[in-house]
Amino acid sequence: MLVAAACCPCPPLLVPEVASGAAGELEALRAACMDAVGVLAAARPDVLVVVGPAEESGRGPYPQGTAGSFRGYGVDLPVRLGPAGGAEQEPGGRELPPSLAVGAWLLERAEWEGPPVEGLGVGEPLAGERCAAAGREIAARAGRVALLVLGDGSARRTQKAPGYYDERAAGFDAEAARALGAADAAALAALDAELAADLQAAGRACWQVAAGAAEDAALRGALLYNEAPYGVGYFVATWS
């Protein structure tokens, strides 16, 4: 059963070494993410599942100890999924996709010493019904399950945004932020997958996985962060 969730964005710029001179611009976002991860620890789950968007080649599952890095962003910063002392990945094994590498970094920064950690990469085109089914399977894994859900909102909030400006982006993000902050599983399940794809909202599928996991959990939500630096919607929410 799902007992807690933290929903965080996953831009590599969240990592100060990647952001370099712009690191200070996202410090409030990092602080909100740390607060959200703290809610997961306080829930004392039996297992933590980290869910993030991934290309087809990067879909999970990923066991504890799987390695990742930010070499693709010009930074030699290795990370591992889960607490120190977990299973070590064998040399030459598959690495974490970028979103789960950010999740692993968040857990390392928070000095996560909780229960076992697993990772799951979710394809952004995955239909809502399949996302919900995956979430239900995750929630049934143990008596107390926690989720770290990674994903960004639209990338078309301004003319300088990665996807340029789309007048629909603000409304989509407003509804996504409201639903995440209210732990409104029905509203998250109702997000339009085609519109999300048009707006380059990379979090839609992962949020709908979380919605499936939370269907019978009666969790309360809190929205900790809702901004669009660089024209991309970033939200941090907790469910407990």
Task: Describe this structure as you would to a colleague.
- The chain has about 240 residues and is an alpha/beta fold.
- The chain has a single domain, classed as LigB-like (Protocatechuate 4,5-dioxygenase, Chain B, 3-Layer(aba) Sandwich).
- The chain has helices at about 15-20, 25-40, 100-110, 130-140, 170-180, 185-190, 195-200, 205-215; strands spanning about 1-10, 45-55, 65-70, 80, 115-120, 145-150, 220-225, 235-240.
- Strands 5-2-6-1-8-7 form a six-stranded mixed sheet, with helices on both faces.
- The longest helix is centred in the first third of the chain and has 16 residues, at about 25-40.
- The radius of gyration is 16 Å and the shape is globular.
- The mean pLDDT is about 95.
What shape does the CA trace take? globular
Which spans of ≥5 residues are poorly predicted at pLDDT below 50? none
Binned, the helix content reads 25-40%
The Cα radius of gyration reads 16 Å
Overall pLDDT score: 94
Main sheet: which strands, in order across?
5-2-6-1-8-7
* N-C termini distance: 12 Å
Features:
240 residues; Protocatechuate 4,5-dioxygenase, Chain B; alpha/beta; single chain; two-stranded antiparallel sheet
Task: Describe the structure in brief.
This protein is an alpha/beta fold.
Itemize the secondary structure elements and their pairings.
Elements lengths: L1 E7 L7 H4 L7 H16 L4 E7 L13 E3 L8 E3 L17 H12 L7 E6 L5 H12 L5 E6 L18 H14 L2 H5 L3 H6 L5 H10 L7 E7 L6 E6 L1
Parallel strand pairs: 1-6, 2-5, 2-6
Antiparallel strand pairs: 1-8, 3-4, 7-8
Helix pairs in contact: 4-8
